[in-house]
Amino acid sequence: MNFINQTKKLFKDLNRVRSKLKDSRTKTFKSETKNLVLIREFVKDFLTSKNISNDDLEKIILAIDEACTNKIKHAYKFDETKDIIIKLKLTDDEFIAEISDFGLPFNPEEITIPDLKENYINKKSGGYGIFLMRQLMDEVKYEFNKDGENKIILKKKLNIKNA
Amino acid sequence: MNEFNLNHKSIEDINIIELKGYLDAHTAPKLENAISNLVNSNQYKIVVNFSELDYISSAGLGVFMAFIETVRNNGGDIKFSAMNEKIYKIFDLIGFPKIYEFYKSDEEAIQRFKSSEK
């Protein structure tokens, strides 16, 4: 009997933690570098009450900043009138961000791993964003839809702090 | 998060740039200008102090890559000082410790510049 009660309590606790976690939020930002700080705040607000580790939180914030920076620079070429749509989602143990633009599509096959030695000689200052995103997240995927939507999907399994 | 601020001071021929707040694609051009101004006036000994920097993205990292070769070809260097663990982790992910020197304090970085002159 005691065992059953303990198991029930465990499931109750687990569900309590899970219900705290499951959530989603979507927001649209104009394609301006000055909005990067607001984008980071948006991600931080969404995740702060969710018992995820600081380390995960910082990695996610940076990965989303990099994704949005790339969209501002490359998809929209700094056209500040365009929209970036950010959808944040938490499942039981995974964080997913879907970030969309309707600008120039980007060819993931053109991505190369940055070679520091080569960049050093060429005074190359860019190209680290995609590399960083891949280091920081578990999965980085691209989707190109017929209506012109270019989506990057970032996924990360989370280390949940004890509730 | 605090807005970005940059402070420049010099000790003899060594230039110290103190960074504060966040360094992202919006604020990186300010740092780019500051280093560019130094390079254009033939100032190649640069220490960047990170003690009050809260955040950096690849746009900030890229600024250092853009200047390092020119600076070193002219007998100078960009040395980093007082970086916290959180920021260092990002530099480490990109492989910067292979290229740049990191020091605990400005004094240590300055000392290194002075001892390499001897």
| Mean pLDDT over the full residue set of chain A | 87
CATH class of chain B: Alpha Beta
Give the full name of the CATH homologous superfamily of chain B.
STAS domain
Percent of residues of chain A in beta strands?
15-25%
Percent helix of chain A, as a range, is 40-55%
Tell me the radius of gyration of chain A: 19 Å
CATH superfamily of chain A: Histidine kinase-like ATPase, C-terminal domain
Shape verdict of chain B: globular
How is the quaternary structure best described?
Answer: heterodimer
Q: CATH first level of chain A: which class?
A: Alpha Beta
The biggest sheet of chain A amounts to: 5 strands, antiparallel
The greatest inter-chain interface is formed by: A-B, 29 and 27 residues
Strand order, sheet with most strands of chain A? 1-2-3-5-4
**Radius of gyration based on Cα positions of chain B:** 13 Å
User: pLDDT below 50 for ≥5 consecutive residues: which ranges of chain A?
Assistant: none
Query: Do you know the CATH topology of chain B?
Result: Transcription Regulator spoIIAA
Q: What do these coordinates show?
A:
The complex is a heterodimer of chains A (163) and B (118). Chain A has helices at residues 2-21, 36-48, 54-75, 116-122, 129-136, and strands at residues 23-30, 83-90, 94-101, 139-144, 150-157. Chain A is of the alpha+beta class. In chain A, β2 (83-90) and β3 form a beta hairpin. Chain A starts with a helix and ends in a 6-residue tail after the last strand. The relative contact order of chain A is 0.18. The mean pLDDT of chain A is 87. By secondary structure, chain B is α/β, with parallel strands linked by helices. Chain B has a single domain (5-117), classed as Transcription Regulator spoIIAA. In chain B, strands 1-2-3-4-5 form a 5-stranded mixed β-sheet, sandwiched between helices. The termini of chain B are far apart. The model of chain B has no long low-confidence stretch (mean pLDDT 95). The chains are: A alpha+beta (163), B alpha/beta (118). Chain A binds chain B through residues 33-34, 36-37, 40-41, 58, 62, 65-66, 69, 72-73, 114, 116, 119-121, 123-129, 131-132, 135-136, and chain B through 1, 3, 22, 24-26, 55, 57-59, 61-63, 65-70, 86, 90, 93-96, 98-99.
